[in-house]
From TrEMBL:
Keywords: ATP-binding, Cell inner membrane, Cell membrane, Membrane, Nucleotide-binding, Translocase, Transport. The keyword Heme does not apply. Belongs to the ABC transporter superfamily. It comes from the Bacteria. Coiled coil: none annotated. This is ABC transporter ATP-binding protein. PANTHER family: ATPASE AAA-TYPE CORE DOMAIN-CONTAINING PROTEIN, OLIGOPEPTIDE TRANSPORT ATP-BINDING PROTEIN APPD.
Amino acid sequence: MTTLLSIRDLTVRYRRDGVEVPALKGVSLDVKAGERLAIIGESGSGKSTLALAIAGLLAGSAFAGGAIEWPANQLQTFHSFAPPSVLPDISPTRGEISSSVAGSPLATLAIGESGRDSSISPQVGEMSGRTEGGVTERDPSATGANLAPTLGRDIGFVFQDPSSSLDPVMPAGKQIAEVARTHLDLTWPDAYARAKTLLERVRLPDPDATLRAYPHQLSGGQKQRVAIAAAIAAGPKLLIADEATSALDTIVQAEIVTLIRRLVAEDGMTLLFISHDIALAATLADRIAVLRHGELVEIGETDQILNAPRHAYARALLDAHLGLDAEPLLDRQGASA
Ligand SMILES: Nc1ncnc2c1ncn2[C@@H]1O[C@H](COP(=O)(O)OP(=O)(O)OP(=O)(O)O)[C@@H](O)[C@H]1O
């Protein structure tokens, strides 16, 4: 398997009320193209921060250091704690990403723009705009080509709560079509046709009616299916699902997991599945990475993590699950999607 994404020594700190809160402490890992990697850990362990950093969605209050490299794109992004003086038109508190391609000029990319603290609860309707702003080419010497992976086009992101990630005043079909129109350069009729196909693919019962439906007219599970359709509308290589089933009841949760597994397989996507639930993660992940207090304490094949965890914390997560219920940890079939 080739490497889609390499994270090197990624460190993120947030500034809150004048105090710096460490969220990630030197995390390094590779994500292989086509794999399903789960990131697990308890609340506050840094899972969402890792997902947001990869997607270029870190809040403006975040300092990022280390490197995120995309070898398949021949793109390297380096985070560093840049002093404010080198970031003249962006927030003084955020980090900087720069990118370089062998033999080409260095491009500088910035993340975490000013006022983006609210970007943790984006709306799909805004996603394309935010996406383009999320990783911004800033190098005056660069050729002009934006080499960074783009959220929406290269990276699909599914958030925990579809009620906040979907725009409440925009019909579901338009929210999906907008992503396709923006990133695939489709006309509106073609984008709507693609939206309808996607609604069929996520198995919504009446795609024509759902195209016109507003989010409040849909159930939680249906809204999450719409959000997933929007996330994959432009055919991203990487799908990030950040606690995408946590707001749903158990049966719907299993259906959404099965849906994600099927779509990832059909489209040949790489999946980053963020969850606090090791049992849920084990149902679809090839590998599991365990975060604790911002550190990567263990990463390995799912079977190895479940059967022979090396780190006491991974063992504790397993024991906690087994203490709560006895559902099989390796039921990879799931419910019908
Ligand atoms: N925008 C922010 N501003 C300040 N601190 C933040 C911000 N986002 C996260 N943090 C802090 O960073 C740490 C890691 O948070 P993060 O949300 O990444 O963890 P998590 O594992 O995803 O938790 P959860 O499962 O509860 O979402 C926590 O201490 C959290 O309070």
